[in-house]
Write a structure and sequence with these properties.
By secondary structure, the chain is mainly beta. It has a single domain, classed as 6 Propeller (Neuraminidase), CATH 2.120.10.30. The chain has no helices and 28 strands. The strands form seven sheets. Strands 2, 3, 4, 5 and 6 form a five-stranded antiparallel beta sheet that branches. Strand 27 and strand 28 form a beta hairpin. The radius of gyration is 19 Å and the shape is globular. 54% of the residues are buried.
Length: 404
């Protein structure tokens, strides 16, 4: 049975485990004529690239607390803005400016959401041009809402709220929650399987529903349509399939991120009772990957009727090993403060809290290990404009990973 996460956790993380294979697929080009969103991700500015490959054995880091918030769940940065924007599970977005928390919220949707357990304000991101803020939250009915807000100065204009997408949720858990603009300028949305246990509605392999999927859309409206479906999405022309789908067979991809240097996509998919997994999608992907749920959980078979071409995780670990319970995905480190960490993917676990890293080459893990730091009730990671990384916790602390 799936456990309740400490302090009403969300989910998403990366793991250590066995290596696997990935499908080879190729990257879509973005057509800027259909949107005001620029083709570059824009959420990060270039940072110096440390020379040399990563060497986890030489990494020495510590956690430095930079803020204390109420249930920090997600972080984003805005182009041209040095602030760190953090979403609190209860519904506020707070900005950390010049090392201090701005007491006035950037946005407060606490009156519109259901919060607690795996519900709440679950994700935020800025459009690549910095003009719009996008949030993912569960409303009073527990359904997933993607809303757009126009930025006015360094605050979101509450009066500009526009619903981009509404997805009904049959159960209160497995809501996914992350929203990220990819290098192609499109908005990616992570959706869990709808909840309960074992995917009772069989959403994982059903291309006719948006649950248990990674979605890819242009969030700007076109006439009466609140968003647009990219014409090169993999299932646009398949009868009975939703065109918004980029990848499927995901249980609860609470956190996923693109490598800012290579464009590769890393997905931390929270497991059920057996495996926590890290899925990898190369930058030249054309989408369409089937990550197996609920026919498989990581590399564990749940069915004799497996489909050909399913994509195995690049790494996994046992759900209940060494106090673990739910993977929390991070980023590939691309900062300059810790050179030996450059190119390694960081992750943690909501219950264990140890920050770990893996290095992947040609679809196989070639290095793995603990970074010797940990936090309680880890919920997410953040990345600033310089590529430095942060650990977010439901207990409140927001910590930067710095050299020891």
């Amino acid at each position: 049975m799936r456990r309740r996460l400490a302090l009403a956790a969300l989910v998403a993380i990366v793991a250590a485990g066995c290596s696997g294979s990935t499908n080879d697929l190729s990257s879509p080009s973005f057509n800027p004529s259909v949107s005001s969103i620029s083709p570059s991700s824009g959420n990060e500015s270039p940072s110096p690239t440390p020379s040399g490959p990563p060497d986890l054995s030489k990494v020495k880091v510590r956690l430095k607390q930079i803020a204390n918030l109420d249930g920090a769940l997600a972080m984003a940065v805005r182009p041209g803005d040095p602030a760190l924007y953090v979403a609190e599970q209860g519904g506020r977005i707070m900005a950390i400016r010049a090392g201090a928390v701005d007491p006035k919220p950037v946005l407060d949707v606490s009156g519109k959401i259901s919060s607690g357990g795996e519900r709440g304000l679950l994700g935020l991101t800025f459009s690549p041009d910095g003009l719009f803020l996008y949030v993912n939250y569960t409303d009073h009915s527990g359904d997933t809402n993607i809303f757009e807000y126009r930025m006015s100065g360094n605050r979101a204009d509450a009066g500009s709220a526009r619903q981009v997408l509404l997805i009904r949720q049959p159960f209160p858990n497995h809501n996914g929650g992350n929203v990220v603009f990819g290098p192609d300028g499109y908005l990616y949305i992570g959706m869990g399987d709808g909840g309960s246990q074992g995917d009772p509605m069989l959403n994982g392999q059903n291309l006719g529903v948006l649950l248990a999927k990674l979605l890819r859309i242009n969030p700007r409206p076109l006439g009466a349509k609140p968003y647009r479906i990219p014409p090169d999405n993999p299932f646009v022309d398949r009868a009975g399939a939703r065109g918004e789908i980029w990848a499927y067979g995901l249980r609860n991809p609470g956190r996923f991120e693109f490598d800012r240097q290579t464009g590769d996509l890393w997905i931390a998919d929270v497991g059920g009772s057996e495996k926590e997994e890290i899925d990898f999608q190369p930058a030249d992907s054309k989408g369409g990957q089937n990550y197996g749920w609920n026919l498989m959980e990581g590399t564990v078979r749940h069915s004799d009727n497996l489909q050909a071409g399913m994509t195995l995780p690049v790494s996994e670990y046992d759900t209940h090993s060494d106090g673990t319970c739910a993977i929390v995905g991070g980023f590939v480190y691309r900062g300059s403060a810790v050179p030996h960490l450059n190119g390694a993917y960081l992750y943690s676990d909501n219950c264990n809290g140890t920050v770990k890293a893996i290095v992947v080459r040609n679809g196989k893990v070639v290095q793995r290990g603990s970074l010797g730091i940990s936090a309680q009730s880890v919920a997410s990671f953040g990345q600033d404009a310089a590529g430095e990384l942060y650990v977010l916790t439901l207990g409140g602390p927001v910590d930067e990973i710095v050299p020891a």
